[in-house]
Write a structure and sequence with these properties.
By secondary structure, the chain is an alpha+beta fold. About 50% of the residues lie in helices and about 15% in strands.
């Protein structure tokens, strides 16, 4: 299986039907430059969709903006929908280029994958991927040297898919318990509601893979607080909920998120395979 997969990853043939569809999408654009971009975006999405279907993962190629005539006319987009999980952005890379350019639209992305093209453009190579949670908002391109192997994408997606039902139940229960006006609970509730469940799973997966188990609670809480909050995270000193100064409740919010993350990380470790070695203190 590994040998056949390695060979398959090297080259994905682009069927004539795919090239014809890409030409059709390209011909609808306002100018040749835009048409060329749409052409390669379409083939990149088609190739990644072909690969994921081959790996028996559910996709919805027609559900993305890249397959929507109105959206692809105004956006530089190459998104592939994975139902219930989010989108993978399929980034074309021409021979000789050393980085992938990130699109202006990044909502609901769970990963970016580089798709390599070379003449005569009858096949492509999947060059690697990077989880969306590893990219800061200001980043415009990612060096190919920073990509993870495509083989690890499958493990990454499996982890997200496994964890979503668990975290969905945990989050729904927590938000129900945090329905009052307590400023600490309100800040935690706001923070979590501003993230999708796949995003939260991906954040905790990154902590799981990059931190010592003894630090999972602290690192997980910090990561959950560090993105997606309209209140600006734990460092915001402006007056906010119920007339409190954020600095007055930051410590309590951080402690609450640490405890939540620690609980969730233990449960995720159990379904991801390391639960026997992780004990809550």
């Amino acid at each position: 299986m590994v040998n056949s997969m390695d060979t398959y990853l090297l080259e994905i043939p682009l069927e004539q039907t795919a090239r014809n569809l890409a030409l059709q999408f390209a011909s609808e654009q306002a100018n040749p430059q835009k048409g060329k971009r749409v052409y390669f975006n379409t083939l990149a999405v088609w190739a990644v969709n072909y690969f994921l279907e081959w790996m028996e993962l559910e996709t919805d190629i027609e559900g993305g903006d890249s397959w929507n005539p109105a959206m692809r006319a105004v956006l530089d987009v190459a998104d592939l929908v994975l139902p219930g999980m989010g989108k993978i952005e399929c980034c074309p890379v021409m021979l000789g280029e050393s980085a992938i350019s990130l699109p202006e639209v990044r909502e609901n992305r769970i990963a970016y994958i580089a798709v390599g093209f070379a003449e005569p453009f009858d096949k492509v190579k999947l060059l690697g991927f990077i989880p969306a949670v590893e990219i800061v908002d200001e980043t415009e391109e990612i060096s190919l040297t920073n990509l993870q192997p495509v083989e690890e994408l499958l493990d990454y997606l499996d982890r997200i898919e496994l964890a979503i039902p668990l975290l969905q139940g945990e989050i729904e229960e927590l938000l129900s318990d945090f329905a009052g006006d307590d400023p600490v609970q309100a800040r935690v509730r706001e923070n979590l509601q501003n993230k999708s469940i796949p995003e939260i799973v991906a954040i905790l997966n990154q902590v799981y893979r990059s931190s010592e188990k003894s630090d999972w609670g602290y690192e997980g809480g910090k990561a959950l607080a560090g993105s997606g909050s309209s209140s600006g995270g734990l460092g915001n000193k402006e007056t906010s909920l119920s007339g409190y100064q954020s600095s007055d409740i930051d410590t309590k919010v951080e402690a609450k998120l640490n405890r939540i993350a620690k609980k969730w990380m233990k449960k995720l470790a159990e379904i991801w395979g390391d639960g026997d070695d992780f004990a809550l203190s």
